[in-house]
Amino acid sequence: MELAALKTILTIREQGSMAGAGRVLDLDPSTVSRILAQVEAETGLRLFQRSTRKLSVTEEGARYLDRIAPLVSDFDAACEEALDARRAPRGTLRMTTSVAFAEKCIVPHLGAFRQAHPEISVELLPSDDNLDLIGEGLDLAVRLARAPKGDLIVRQLMPTRYRVVVAPDFVARQGKLANPVMLAGVECLRFTLPGYRSFWRFRDRNGAVIEVSIAGKLLISNALALRAAACQGLGPCLLADWLIREDLAAGRLIDLFPDYDCTATSFDTAAWLLYPSRSYLPGKTRAMVDFLRAHVPQAHVK
């Protein structure tokens, strides 16, 4: 049985119709129907129930398609791997991360990546929503959180820490806060994410953890805008170290509680590289993963 025929019947299942499969494969519906009939004749199975309005997979068809799907995928992956072994990585790499991380940690390195891999086109989609890699056809994502769970390959790019920072003129007006508990009486700048807008957590050098209720009339959904508001002296703000390191070094922001670990969720957070779970990683994705792991952490160490 030809591989193209197997790909055709799998596409019929994915699209839910022979017409849909024909559009994806650039085949006439009559050709798709003929291929399906040939496969059913060779296997002796009725793979799909057809009617004038509906096409559905039969029970025996579902078992057969489930068995051949990984075999077809493995064959395609082997072909890709053989091609990549003979040529430089190429193609279009579609990747996403948060707007702030893209601006501060990804975009500054794109020129060097393009020089190293001129055959790879990069389509960067900054978004503060967690885009669906499979549904959006994405090759790679960088997520900032605890280690993500799910059916994706996850590798750490770099650990992250959070700090509570203010502008110097805020301290000049309000005075320095002696400990995190004093934040309960202060108008803070708040991120709109549910885990960040109500409580901040602090851990001292002895490992004792306290949770402080946070209030403030200014809520912002973007980390870059929060940083700008903090630099204007509008209040204390919880921000990631990679975003504010230059501001701290230049004196635009002050770390209010340098003796404490700070977080809104977990103290164990990082920037994670995520890509679809596959037996073979395309050369273009591997090139970007290796490049980011070699360049981004080094640019953000203290």
Description:
With 302 residues, this protein is α+β, with helices and mostly antiparallel strands. The protein is built from nine helices and 15 strands. It is elongated. The strands form five sheets. It has a five-stranded mixed β-sheet, with helices on one face. Helix 1 (3-15) crosses helix 2 and helix 2 (18-25) packs across helix 3 (29-43).
Helix content range of the residues, please? Answer: 40-55%
Strand arrangement across the biggest beta sheet: 4-3-5-15-6
The mean pLDDT is 89
Largest sheet composition: 5 strands, mixed
Overall 3D form: elongated
Number of helices: 9
Q: What is the tally of beta strands?
A: 15
Which structural class best describes the helix and strand composition? alpha+beta
Low-pLDDT windows of residues: none
- Please indicate the percent range of residues in DSSP E strands (runs of 2 or more): 25-35%
SSE map:
Elements lengths: L2 H13 L2 H8 L3 H15 L4 E3 L4 E3 L1 H28 L4 E7 L1 H18 L3 E7 L13 E6 L6 E9 L1 E5 L1 H7 L12 E5 L7 E5 L5 E5 L1 E6 L2 H9 L5 E4 H10 L3 E2 L5 E3 L5 E8 L6 H17 L3
Parallel strand pairs: 3-4, 3-5, 8-11
Antiparallel strand pairs: 1-2, 5-15, 6-15, 7-12, 7-13, 9-10, 9-14
